[in-house]
Amino acid sequence: MIHADPRREALEHWLARELGGARFTLTPASEDASFRRYFRATLDDGSSLIAMDAPPDKEDCRPFVHVAWLLHQAGVHAPQVRAQDLAQGFLLLTDLGNRTYLNELAPSNAPRLFADATDALIRWQLATRAGELPPYDEALLRREMQLFPDWYVTRHLQAELRDEQKDRLEQIFALLVQSALAQPKVYVHRDYMPRNLMISDPNPGVLDFQDAVIGPIAYDMVSLTRDAFLSWDEESVLDWTVRYWEKARAAGLPVAADFGEFWRAFEWMGLQRHLKVLGIFARINYRDGKPKYLADTPRFIRYARDVAKRYTALAPLTRLLDELKCES
User: Fold this and answer.
1) What Rg, from alpha-carbon coordinates, does the chain have?
2) Euclidean distance between CA atoms 260 and 71, whole angstroms
3) What angle in degrees, to the nearest 10, is found between the helix axes of 234-251 and 259-286?
4) H or E segment and range at residue 203
5) Is residue 277 a contact partner of residue 190, using CB atoms and an 8 Å limit?
6) How far apart are CA 128 and CA 253, in angstroms?
7) pLDDT per position in the chain (328 positions), as tens?
8) Following CA atoms 173, 179, 183, 189 in sequence, which dihedral angle do they give, to the nearest 10 degrees?
9) Quick check: 133 and 187 in contact, CB under 8 A?
């Protein structure tokens, strides 16, 4: 008989060996936009661990293992790797629980939770060392933004950009790349958002860090406050960003001495991310068959519009979104 889920069967056999034959129950722990899957292995004594299934032909576990070590070195609460089988694509991790920031954030607790997340982010950035992570270079920045015309415009909107529109978009891309590359370089989680932060002790627990790079200092703060699944009023975003900037300066991080300069870099970095995510959410739908992410694309159109309308140099993007009838 062919097992309906051969990778899960192989994972269960591997876990049985790693746990020394201890009895456990395996249940889905979380969803992922990638090909990775996470299961919670609950033992008879009530303790639990997380098993990651990352098909080696589609995912590489080595960056996860390395960045987990870097986070621990930085004093950031992340899962510890208890066992690994890189050939099969299996990891056994400590369990940070199931209380995500995304599910628990509310106006009453947001200041405290964002303060904890900001403190952890500063520890992560202060630990930056050259040579540990790949660079967030121009090639990567452009590959990410190219997802917007390739997947959101062409595939989702079924629109074909005219040459003049392509030139306008390239003009915006060039400005955003220039702004990003001009920022001081630190460790960048790259998805430092409420869905990947856990209520834990110490708080927060940090997940989904395998794509970390060295890059623009404003990037992770944008991810935290202009989230894919949760929107905050601009006054709150500004307040949290000012508090981060003040703490970062006090800690000796190389943020701009003028907050206005940092805020502009923050907004333009965010716009690069917004365009990327619009493309990613469309790709996840059409290529990977996961449609639920498309429901959040209007949030990113709104983010993009709000930033573009505040800066004269970004006006060509506002016109392009109007011409494409991108609704927010």
Assistant:
1) 21
2) 30
3) 120
4) none
5) no
6) 10
7) 455 788 999 999 999 999 988 899 999 887 665 688 999 999 999 899 999 999 999 889 999 999 999 999 999 999 999 999 999 999 999 999 999 999 999 999 999 999 999 999 999 999 999 999 999 999 999 999 999 999 999 999 999 999 999 999 999 999 999 999 999 999 999 999 999 999 999 999 999 999 999 999 999 999 999 998 888 999 999 999 999 999 999 999 999 999 999 999 999 999 999 999 999 999 999 998 888 888 889 999 999 999 999 999 999 999 999 999 887 5
8) -30
9) yes
- CA 164 from chain centre, in angstroms, equals 32
My answer on whether 45 and 191 are in the same domain is no
Q: Which two tokens stand for residue 18?
A: 């790693």
DSSP strand pairing (90-94 vs 48-53) = antiparallel
Residue 1 in any domain: the answer is: no
What is the span of the domain harbouring residue 155? 101-323
Tokens of 151: 């997947």
Provide the number of structural domains found in the chain: 2
- Strand, helix or coil at 168? helix
- Determine the Cα–Cα distance for residues 85 and 14; give it in Å rounded to an integer: 9
